[in-house]
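ok here's Putative 4-hydroxy-4-methyl-2-oxoglutarate aldolase, seq below lol
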Amino acid sequence: MALIEESFFGLPTTAISDALKGFQHMDSGIKPLNNNHKIAGRAFTVNIPAGDNTGILRAIREANPGDLLVVDGKGYTERAVSGDFVLGLAKDAGIQGIVLDGAIRDIQGIRELDFPVFYRAATIAASLKIAPGELQVPVSVGGVSVKPGDIIVGDANGVIVVPKEKEEEILSITLEKIKKDEEREKKYRGSRASALQYLNGLFGEK
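and the structure came out like this:
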């Protein structure tokens, strides 16, 4: 039997957003480095001081394979808190991907890793290593509260957070939404007549 987080994998974040009534999506500044990358998994949360990546290194050591690191980097973009070496460690440790409200560097090297990274910006300067950060605590990433164990789903459109206490309900609503969208697509796409049929119905015209 598939884990519920696996059932979310590949579902459009747009449909999940509809199920959540337009809430719980991270702001538009956080996007994937590679638009082909998709993620869906449990949040392993990391709270770090701006520009310091010690907490990320600790998280890579302590997270379980398949976890997603969700990092509150305070939106700070003048120092990169992950580069290709650190993210290579994460990939080797079995981390599914990282969502970072902060900056990365070594863009080409990260592309070559083929490791899902959702981030706010890229810069050149290296991180600090002063403070240990906090692991598995509630954080705010991209303007959304994230608790340890929440389901995180990401694709080319962005990242959305499914609260773990609502995950089964939201999965059910999302699947129903996708089914209805597919039925609408089949009925109203493909010709001028079908397109006008939909639009006339939308505006109450015969």
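fwiw The radius of gyration is 19 Å. kinda neat tbh
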